[in-house]
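Tutorial handout. Part one gives the primary structure; part two gives the three-dimensional structure as tokens.
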Amino acid sequence: MMTHSQPENLNLSQLLYARIFLWLGFVASLACIALFTVSGTVSMPEISASAIAFLAGALGIVLVGQLLDLNSLTKYLGIFLALVPGLNGLVCVYFIYVAYKGSKEAVVVDAPRKAVTPRPVTSNNRPVVAPEFSSSAPKMPKNFNQVVDVIAHIKVADLPDLPEGHVVDMEGKSAGLALAEKDSPLVLCQKGVFGVSYYMEKDDAYRYVTDADIKATDLDLKALHLMALNNLTDQVNNNLKIKAFKNSYALLAGGQLEASLVLLDDLWDNVLKEQLPDALPNTPVVVIPARHVCAFCDVRSIEGIKELHAIAERVTKAGENLISESLFIRREDGKWEAFKGYY
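Part two.
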């Protein structure tokens, strides 16, 4: 069975045009067969109908191939078979089916409802001025400016049940209480199932915070995380939008930090429920297949859950900055856990 990787923003109007060309090719193929059956000879009408069948069918095949990311073998074989009188009708029917199936699987519609901008998200952890140490009075850690602009960034998901702030390695396995290797990105378990790393800008480039950075600043890990959440909040408030699909929604925040939005309590506890009171009457379920994708729906929406699975499958096939295909449900305590229902 042929499989394809559906693009994230499938243009359904163009897919409709492709189906029209394919139907035209199919009708022209039938006309060619009928004319030949009646006349018994190959004359200009038969040649004209056959040419129309090939041109329309080939154009439809090319459009379907581009829109649905079909592999090259499938496209070229279809175009070659479209040259064969009589057989080209069957080829057109096959690609009509492929186009129809692709349009039904599409979750991102061609003309979604206009994205809306919710009210600014607030951090539950403000203000973070300096962490508390063993001394009676808080003090500013040394080299504090090295990490002051750090931002929380989800690196892995599907972690086992680890304590908050527990250090994990890049594969999501427990690294115990000890920090990671000197030059390895620091990853902490947060919100139950997410491995969060921390990146900052240094020397006009972005890089992850490492064990060496923590030791150089004397900054404890909890303070680092709270600071990173505050910076994440400030960053996404500049361009956070909600985009509506058929039965689910997506958060847009510039194309780099969408997955990390699951870390912001105020967003899920207040902002989205205020903005979408009818769409989120119950607990939200989210999918973050890649760092630039955060889609969600209400836990009671069976069709919404199906769309989230489709988004996860499509983004995972694209294979870019992947995190997890799993769905996650928000618990009453603010943590997330794997969602296994309706599939």
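Part three, for discussion. Residues 114 and 202 are 37 Å apart (CA to CA). Helices lie at 12-39, 44-68, 72-81, 87-105, 211-217, 221-236, 265-275, 302-318.
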